[in-house]
Amino acid sequence: MGSTTDLLALAHKHLYGNYKPAPFVLRSGKGAELFDVDGKRYVDLCAGVAVCAVGHAHPKLAARLAEQAGKLLHVSNYFFNEENILLAQELTYASCMDRGLFCNSGAEANEAIFKLARRAAWMKRGTTEGVIVAFHNAFHGRTMGALSMTGTPKYREGFGAVEGVVHLPFGDLAAVQALPTDKHIIAVVVEPVQGEGGVYPAPEGFLAGLRAFCNERGALLLVDEVQTGIARTGSFLAFHEAGIRPDAVALAKGLGGGFPIGAMLTTEEYAGVLTPGTHGSTYGGNALASVAARTVLEIVREEKLAARAKDLGAKLSAMLNDLVQAFPDHCELERGRGLLRGLVLREGFVARDVLPKLQEKGILLTAAGDRVIRFSPPLVVTESELAEGVEAIRAVLPTLTK
Fold first, then answer.
1. Active site members
2. Domain boundary at 302, 322, 344, which?
3. Residues 284 and 345 occupy one common structural domain
């Protein structure tokens, strides 16, 4: 326990400085509300960047985690644990995939699909040489393979990248189809909605076109659902809305409701690619994380959170469009799907400059790209809490200067 001043002093002394957190310290939460150590209330409309899907301190999730902590936490992957087997069954059923490999984060899940694609190419052709197609503005994580697929150069600055990845314009199917036929395409990796890059939904028919291209070229279609998955866009997974089935999917964020867990899901065709000893994760699939994910899946079903995200997403879209109409000199448009939405500011305004003003009013949001204020609230958020956030933006917009 401590005051804000004392805790911030400790943070600046002991935490590594690769982040730039807001100058307050959160202590507790409930639903879509958070409270700092001084008791100030905040409406959380970012949910740990789409992580806390079922909100803060959901009673069922809290109870299940506490119960499991008293039974079994971890045994490693040298041994089965009951909860992980049941999670694999439930998650593959909900996703319409066949196999699950578990890890700890979205970056690790994207590393796994990267390695799956390389290994599958090696098994087929005896070489890992070839191209993985990714897209400009994409974000797939901070580890080297995931970073290499990330389509924003600033994230790779000072680190370099793994060779063999080419980046094309997002949504430009013709650019993908124009890749030379003598170039071996290992895989195409795509986000159904580019979250970090600016909340860009894939154009109608783009995912289906990529599926057809991959079928034609013998490539894997890899879908990154780290930010879009677990009911956020109005379907359990966003690719379900496109009527396709990828070869592998990366999941994380909302899957554990705040507890770290990631997953790679594959079709049966690729179940034998990563054989024993080729890939692993010490903590991946541990019993506590598996209980967290199983409980989240149960809550999503029972509380019909996919339908809720679709309904509230439409209402949030209407609210944001009202802002665009009311402040045409400040706002360009709104876009997104379900409860992953962005308010795009006009050229010259910087989204990150707006966030502290909103925090003063008790609203927590994040930026996506330079000019986009991103909404990724808990799926249990209320319409009135969304309206509270939009009204705070309405109050702040007139104070902005270029």
1. 139, 224, 253
2. 302
3. no
Domain boundary (302, 324, 340) is at: 302
Domain tally for the chain?
A: 2
Question: Maximum CA pair distance of the chain?
Answer: 64
3-state percent helix, strand, coil for the chain, nearest multiple of 5: 40, 20, 40
Both tokens of residue 70? 């008293």
CATH number at residue 335: 3.90.1150.10
Q: Which residue range is the domain that position 29 belongs to?
A: 4-54+304-399
Torsion of CA 173, 174, 177, 180, to 10 degrees: -140
Question: pLDDT tens digits for the chain (402 residues)?
Answer: 789 999 999 999 999 999 999 999 999 999 999 999 999 999 999 999 999 999 999 999 999 999 999 999 999 999 999 999 999 999 999 999 999 999 999 999 999 999 999 999 999 999 888 999 999 999 999 988 889 898 888 888 899 888 899 999 999 999 999 999 888 999 999 999 999 999 999 999 999 999 999 999 999 999 999 999 999 999 999 999 999 999 999 999 999 999 999 999 999 999 999 999 999 999 999 999 999 999 999 999 999 999 999 999 999 999 999 999 999 999 999 999 999 999 999 999 999 999 999 999 999 999 999 999 999 999 999 999 999 999 999 999 999 988
